[in-house]
């Protein structure tokens, strides 16, 4: 069996302080961070022990994980396991990148978000160019606030053509945006319109809970990050029995890490193998 897992442990802190983000203001003690590290080690041990299955993993931390050595080493370990096809992580790309050389880079991928208010564009760009030089797959992206338009346009010009630059639609801001802003975002990211919807999902078939699950630091399995009800625990001997067809119980789904698994949208055709790290099949660089 192949299973994709979106892992979110106990980490809830970040080295940036984005205005719109609740994790920007949080603190964690050394004890809490040690717990996160312990949970991550246990999770990776479990992946290794379940060698009869094949896994793709996306880390979706509530905060920045890659500044902590245990996430870097976790990716090194995971990408070198024979039963792991992919290990990817959402990051602000502020960390050093030398550790990627110890990974199996064919299996490593980064979802790298540019935060113009927290990092200078040239520093972020250099990090992207370093990933390119080191042959690491990644998607770059920016939250779609019109105030970032100049930085986004410049970044698109500077990034290599083979790098996809996604724009995350700020759903509640969309009605206030001009057609010019919407056209601008679509010119940068041809897939931007896909991200602008709340997709009807109630009673629709979704891979979440079947071929993709979310797992927290204690091993609780959920269908996805958006339905709180656990469906099992990976540390129970019969964990596989929780995986089956289920219809979505939420009214809508609006986040890439969720709706890409809604069957009727057929977004597996758009993203293929890059569905977790948000890299489309087609090269969507600058025109
Ligand atoms: S970089 Fe990401 S996690 Fe950190 S404060 Fe900004 S939005 Fe939040
Ligand atoms: S449609 Fe979204 S909310 Fe519903 S099960 Fe799938 S990922 Fe979860």
UniProtKB/TrEMBL annotation:
Protein name: Radical SAM domain protein
Source organism of this protein record: Hyella patelloides LEGE 07179
Gene3D superfamilies to which the protein is assigned, alphabetical: Aldolase class I (3.20.20.70)
Highest taxon of source: Bacteria
């Amino acid at each position: 069996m192949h299973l994709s897992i979106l892992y979110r442990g106990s980490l809830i802190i970040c080295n940036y302080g984005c205005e719109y983000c609740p994790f920007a203001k949080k603190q964690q003690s050394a004890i809490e961070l040690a717990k996160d590290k312990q949970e991550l080690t246990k999770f990776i041990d479990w992946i290794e022990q379940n060698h009869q299955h094949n896994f793709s993993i996306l880390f979706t931390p509530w905060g920045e994980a890659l500044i902590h050595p245990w996430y870097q080493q976790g990716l090194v370990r995971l990408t070198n396991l024979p039963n792991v096809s992919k290990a990817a992580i959402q990051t602000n790309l502020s960390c050093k990148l030398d550790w990627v050389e110890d990974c199996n880079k064919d299996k490593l991928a980064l979802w790298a978000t540019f935060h113009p208010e927290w990092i200078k564009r040239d520093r972020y760009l250099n990090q992207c160019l370093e990933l390119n030089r080191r042959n690491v797959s990644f998607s770059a992206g920016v939250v779609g606030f019109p105030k970032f338009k100049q930085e986004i346009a410049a970044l698109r010009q500077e990034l290599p053509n083979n790098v996809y630059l996604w724009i995350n639609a700020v759903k509640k801001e969309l009605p206030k945006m001009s057609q010019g802003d919407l056209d601008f975002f679509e010119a940068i990211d041809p897939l931007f319109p896909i991200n602008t919807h709340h997709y009807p999902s109630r009673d629709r078939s979704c891979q979440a809970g079947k071929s993709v699950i979310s797992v927290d630091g204690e091993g609780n399995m959920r269908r996805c990050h958006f339905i709180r009800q656990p469906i099992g625990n990976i540390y129970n001997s019969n964990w596989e029995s929780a995986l089956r067809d289920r219809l979505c119980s939420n009214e809508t789904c609006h986040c890439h890490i969720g709706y890409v698994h809604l069957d009727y949208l057929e977004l597996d055709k758009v993203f293929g193998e890059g569905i977790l790290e948000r890299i489309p099949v087609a090269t969507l660089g600058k025109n």
